[in-house]
Amino acid sequence: MTWKSISALLRGNSMLIILLILYVIVASTAKGFTSIDNQLNILRNIAVPGMIAFGMTLVIIVGEIDLSVGSMVAVSACMTAWVVEWASGDAIEPAWYFVAFAFLVTIVFAAGIGLFNGVLRHRVGVPTFISSLAMMATLAGLANLITNGSSIESFPSWYYIIGSGRFFNIPVPVFLLVIAFIITFTITNFTTLGRSIYSVGGNMEAARLSGINVWRTKTICLMITSVFAATGGIIYSSLINSGNPTIARGMELEVISAVIIGGVSLFGGKGSIWGAFIGVLFLGVLLNAMTLWGFNPYAQQVVKGALILAAVFVNFFIDKR
């Protein structure tokens, strides 16, 4: 291999190399980091932000952004719990079909919010930064309105399986993360929609002139992200066995940070689902490492922010070169 090809390979996989270096450092300094249980714990912890990051990657590539995903997680958890309570008549052990109905209502609601944001962007011309910021506050208020500011505990005894259960000794959320990865990876790499997403993000006017339905493409991406966030809310409601309006606060910033770390351009048209996964895994490993090292929780936020900034700087610098 020539130096030019090696340099191109390093530039194309800069964040993967940084992640591997982080793994080596943590593995040599933190006891128990390399254990199978700890690795599965990392994957379980990044399952929800990872799913949302995959959807957010599509949204950012297409030239938009969604700041309401954290509130969508919270309101989805609360809505699921409330629908189960309402449909079952506040039964002690609700039947499975009440839970299934609650899932359906929550997913349809989330898809409707994504559709609304897309239509608002298309018909009214409101930037998604503004509309999703307003939606973030609206959904957070709706979560508190549904629950009256407290938790709703209405789930059956088996409900914990979704968030805490294991299948072949692998946490169920990890399977959901893999499914979300496969769906979005397939979309971006093997479908007409995926080609349209990159075309619209790269040059919206050129994509329109070539016959691509620009606004339908953007709306579909917003709907996928909202549905993934709603699925994350269902997982969290299972983890805590209730619908709580305070969960997932600030998750939108974590997700966007992971996506940017993974090499997705905020200007649109560039990025990959694999890169988003690398970014989410980087943050998951970093948080797990600081916990094993015994970092002060407040210091963790400082170190996390500094390393995110450093990783983004290195990524942008290598890309520019």
Account of the protein in words:
- This protein is 75% helix and 1% strand.
- The longest helix has 29 residues, at 96-124.
- It is mostly helical.
- Helix 2 runs parallel beside helix 14 and helix 4 packs antiparallel against helix 12 (214-240).
- Strands 1-2 form a two-stranded antiparallel ribbon.
Shape: globular
Uncertain spans: none
Name the helicity range. over 70%
Helical stretch tally: 15
Query: What's the count of strands?
Result: 2
Radius of gyration: 20 Å
- SSE pattern: HHHHHHHHEEHHHHHHH
Query: Which percent range describes the beta-strand content?
Result: under 5%
Give a brief outline of the structure:
By secondary structure, this protein is mostly helical. Helix content is 75%, strand content 1%. The longest helix has 29 residues.
